[in-house]
């Protein structure tokens, strides 16, 4: 009859059966883990709500009067005058200074993608966003494990950012932006760059863009920290180095 384990002299970790369920759960794929799906869904919903709520708040309060963006009007102006002319739908207003020379809020209608890339390519960006969203879910389901909540949160931010801007393109014909970091800050010594001119950061963005950037950085760190398959030792190839019994 086996003797009972002494809880003082023999720690709980010595019993491999105690840690087996947790280790087994951590090793399974995220697609089979309810906890991983919960993290993905909750973070996505919270981030999407934050994006849409801040856009609503910005276009109701930053200008002197609430700005209502009409989708058909946006599409008509973009088709007849050019996508950049939809900026005329925003009334002239003074930016809201949050932190002087660091952060301002100002209303902008973006007919392109992040940083104003590809103005007028609305259909292309909608299709691209749908493909990217499908890729994000596939990455979550096939390349992450149940314990990788960091990666699940990163994928959720990417999904929320993509859906937030996709919502704008579907219902407004453009993307609503209002966040302007480093307003008016210029490169020293008269330096000018092809992507920003004299200003360090002339772009106005939104919370969805912020989540996209954070999600990409987090996911890149996660992938960089993963061990390559060749680095994992194979248990079957291990050979004993001590003397053979009976030698």
Summarize the structure in words.
This protein is mainly alpha-helical. It has one domain. Helix content is 47%, strand content 8%. The protein has 6 helices and 3 strands, in the order αααββααβα. It has a 3-stranded antiparallel beta sheet. Helix 5 (149-172) packs antiparallel against helix 6. It is globular and about 55 Å long. The protein starts with 15 loop residues before the first helix and ends in a 22-residue tail after the last helix. The relative contact order is 0.14. The model is unreliable at 229-237 (pLDDT under 50).
Tell me the overall shape. globular
Structural class: mainly alpha
Number of distinct helices: 6
* Whole-number total of structural domains: 1
What would the average pLDDT be, to the nearest integer? 81
Query: Which strand order spans the largest sheet, edge to edge or round the barrel?
Result: 1-2-3
- Strand proportion, as a percent range, falls in 5-15%
CA radius of gyration is: 26 Å
Order of helices and strands: HHHEEHHEH
Number of strands: 3
Q: Report, as a whole number of angstroms, the end-to-end distance.
A: 34 Å
Q: Quick one: biggest sheet?
A: 3 strands, antiparallel
Q: Low-confidence runs (pLDDT<50, min 5 residues)?
A: 229-237
Query: Helix fraction?
Result: 40-55%
Search tags:
247 residues, mainly alpha, 3-stranded antiparallel sheet, 6 helices, 8% strand, globular
